[in-house]
Design goal:
alpha+beta, Diaminopimelate Epimerase, Chain A, domain 1, 2 domains, about 325 residues, about 40% strand, 6-stranded mixed beta sheet
C-alpha cells in the first residue's frame, strides 16, 4: 500500500480556521516567479491536495487553508484556498500563518515583515511576548470602491456596494436582505448572500482602476455597531469579522465621509470576535480614491496534523450540499 503524508498546523483567527500546509507538496507543483504564478501552477497540477485537506472527510464545508511558499520578493510567500477554490488575499489566514510560523520557529521573531500574496505585497507588524504572538496587523493591498450595483431580490430593490480589497466584495445592509447577524442565525445569511452574488456578477460590474470585469467572490452583510457576516466560496460563513472584508468596510466608511485617516474602528463577526482597523493613507489612481487599510487580530494554534492519502482509499474528497 502506497501512502502520501501531508503535515499541517491548524489555527483559528477569531474562530475562523486556517489549515497551513507545511510539508507534502512537491516542489514542481509550486514553480513560478511570483506567488500568483506558484498558486496557479498548484491549482493546475495539484488541486487534488486542496480538495483532500479542505473537504471531507479530513476537512469540512467551512474549512480554509494556506500554503506557504518560497519567494525572493518578501520574507514569506503564501497563497490561500478553501473548499471551493482559491483567493488572492485573506486577512484572517495571513494572521494565522504568521502566528503559527513564528511560534513554531519557521519565521524569526521579528516585529516587521513583508508577505507576498497573489494580490501583491503586504506589510505585517507583529506583537510578540515570551515567544507567543499576541497580535498581528497587516497593511493590505490598495483598496477602493468600484461601483454600486442595484439588484432585485425577493421582489425588493437592494443596493450592493462593490469594493476591491484584495478580493472583490459585494457589501450590503443585512436588513435589506431580511436577515440578522446574530451568531446563532448566521447560516440564514448563506442563501440570500449567494443569490445576491449571482445577481451582482450577472450585472458584470467593472473595476474603475483596471477597467477589467469584476467577479465578486464574497458578500459582506453589515449591520449597525460595525457588525458583519461574510459569505464566500460555495456558502462558507466566515466566523471571524473577515480581514479583507474589514478592509472593504473601512474603505466604504472613508468614501462615505464617515471615517477619517487614522480613526480606528472595531468590527465584530458572527461569533463575537473582533478585528480592529483604520485607514493609514489614501491616494488617487485613475481618478479613484485608493485607501491603505490596516487590520489587526489574534490567532491561536489549534493542532498539528499528519494527514494520509493511501492508494487503497478510493473514497476521495467530497462535500455535501
Amino acid at each position: 500500500m502506497e501512502r502520501t503524508e501531508f503535515i499541517t498546523v491548524d489555527t483559528h483567527t477569531g474562530g475562523e480556521p486556517t489549515r497551513i500546509v507545511l510539508d507534502g507538496v512537491e516542489a514542481d507543483t509550486l514553480s513560478g516567479e511570483t506567488v500568483r504564478e506558484k498558486r496557479d501552477r498548484f491549482a493546475a497540477t495539484a488541486d487534488n491536495i486542496r480538495k483532500l485537506l479542505m473537504q471531507e472527510p479530513r476537512g469540512h464545508a467551512d474549512m480554509f487553508g494556506a500554503v506557504p511558499v518560497p519567494t525572493d520578493r518578501a520574507d514569506l510567500g503564501v497563497f490561500f484556498m478553501d473548499t471551493d477554490g482559491y483567493l488572492d488575499m485573506c486577512g484572517h489566514g495571513l494572521i494565522g500563518v504568521v502566528t503559527a510560523l513564528i511560534e513554531q520557529g519557521e519565521l524569526p521573531e521579528t516585529p516587521e515583515l513583508t508577505v507576498e500574496t497573489p494580490a501583491g505585497l503586504v506589510d505585517v507588524t507583529v506583537e510578540i511576548a515570551d515567544g507567543v504572538v499576541r497580535r498581528v496587523a497587516f497593511e493590505n493591498v490598495d483598496s477602493y470602491v468600484c461601483e454600486t450595483v442595484p439588484v432585485e431580490q425577493d421582489g425588493n430593490p437592494v443596493e450592493a456596494r462593490i469594493v476591491y480589497s484584495g478580493n472583490y466584495f459585494a457589501v450590503v445592509d443585512a436588513d435589506s436582505l431580511g436577515v440578522t447577524l446574530d451568531g446563532e442565525y448566521a447560516t440564514q445569511c448563506i442563501e440570500p448572500a449567494l443569490e445576491l452574488r449571482r445577481a451582482v456578477n450577472d450585472a458584470t460590474p467593472e473595476d474603475p482602476v483596471t477597467g477589467a470585469r469584476v467577479a465578486v467572490s464574497a458578500v459582506e452583510l453589515t449591520a449597525s455597531g460595525d457588525r458583519s457576516c461574510v459569505v464566500f466560496a460555495d456558502g462558507s460563513v466566515d466566523r471571524s469579522p473577515c480581514g479583507t472584508g474589514t478592509c472593504a468596510r473601512l474603505t466604504l466608511h472613508h468614501a462615505d465621509g464617515g471615517l477619517a485617516i487614522g480613526e480606528r474602528v472595531e468590527v465584530t463577526g458572527p461569533v463575537g470576535s473582533t478585528f480592529e482597523g483604520y485607514i493609514s493613507d489614501t491616494s488617487v489612481v485613475n481618478g479613484v480614491t485608493v485607501t491603505s487599510p490596516v487590520v489587526s487580530g489574534t490567532a491561536h494554534i489549534t493542532g498539528e496534523h499528519t494527514f494520509y492519502r493511501t492508494d487503497d482509499d478510493t473514497l476521495g474528497s467530497f462535500t455535501l450540499a
